[in-house]
Amino acid sequence: MRPSATIFALLFPLAAVAQYSMVKEYAGSTFFDDWNFYGHADNLTHGNTNFLSAKDASKKQLAFVNANGNAIIKVDNSSTLKFPNNRDSIRINTKDRFTIGSVWVVDMLHMPYGCSVWPAFWSSALSWPEGGEIDTMEAVNKDTMAHMGLHSDPALQGNASTIDTSALGRPTANYSSDGCAITSFFEPQTIIFNIALCGDYAGSSSSFYPSCTGVCYQDWVLGNPSVYDTAYFEVQHLRVYGIPGGFTVISSGASRLLRASPSFLVFFTSALAFLLSVWV
Ligand SMILES: *[C@@H]1O[C@H](CO)[C@@H](O)[C@H](O)[C@H]1NC(C)=O
Ligand SMILES: *[C@@H]1O[C@H](CO)[C@@H](O)[C@H](O)[C@H]1NC(C)=O
Ligand SMILES: *[C@@H]1O[C@H](CO)[C@@H](O)[C@H](O)[C@H]1NC(C)=O
Ligand SMILES: *[C@@H]1O[C@H](CO)[C@@H](O)[C@H](O)[C@H]1NC(C)=O
């Protein structure tokens, strides 16, 4: 099993615009240039993870560009740990933030999975949770959600500097704006990859026991490190698109917040599935 997916996250304007231009790309040898590394314990979701600094991540080879030019973001699968230590992993967020109205495309060849593993591709505003958190994709343990992605459709890959959102097809989920003032709840977002272990979601008995056995921390995090051989992202690229001439990128350090167009879509695509979440 090698789940993979091309994911389109769209922060979609009300006046439907189909044609967007690329404003930012994270890919190849420079993939990791413009991210913040969390650099401390998982104090947000209480997982058994140390999220490394950029320096340690590079030194320990948990965040690197592989020989194929793809970004690898992974859990330590070589150290045998003793109680009460936690396992090294990665959480990174884009230094830039992207406004409501932008389109995000991430092309992944591999998603992390396995007992105790909790990967997420998501985003957050600077002010959390008030400024909004968008969980584009997450899964825990042997969650069947990981099957949503499989291999991407080569026709939805490519190198386009523009994207035509009207060509993305029919949504499988659509969260309507009826009754929800989206602009009051979502601010510009920083995009995040992370892999937590156990914690509030993967470690809760209702998520853990349907597919896994034992005790999340003692038997898995402290157990044989090879169980984490599959706990990695392999990312071909992450691209952000915006309306031509529009205001999409807020560079790191900028404090300006923009409350803009009120709707949100996420597409998941693969050879087997075409999935879409929509906040409109
Ligand atoms: C987590 O720890 C960091 C570093 O000590 C701190 O800046 C941050 O506010 C903490 N976050 C939470 C949610 O406790
Ligand atoms: C594809 O994108 C890469 C950068 O990601 C660039 O170097 C290359 O020239 C592009 N190829 C085409 C055909 O546009
Ligand atoms: C989502 O639902 C709303 C309200 O039901 C509808 O107006 C809109 O067209 C839907 N969006 C898509 C992309 O299907
Ligand atoms: C860690 O996992 C990777 C695959 O993700 C594998 O290539 C490597 O051999 C593993 N390392 C160890 C020490 O088992």
UniProtKB/TrEMBL annotation:
Membrane-spanning parts: 260-279
One MF term in the entry's GO annotations: hydrolase activity, hydrolyzing O-glycosyl compounds
Residue ranges of every copy of the GH16 domain listed in the record: 24-246
GO biological process terms, semicolon-separated: glucan catabolic process
Listed name of the protein: GH16 domain-containing protein
UniProt xrefs under InterPro entries: Beta-glucanase-like, ConA-like_dom_sf, Glycosyl_Hydrlase_16
Keyword Signal: yes
Species of origin: Meripilus lineatus
Pfam families: GH16_XgeA
Signal sequence, renumbered to the chain: 1-18
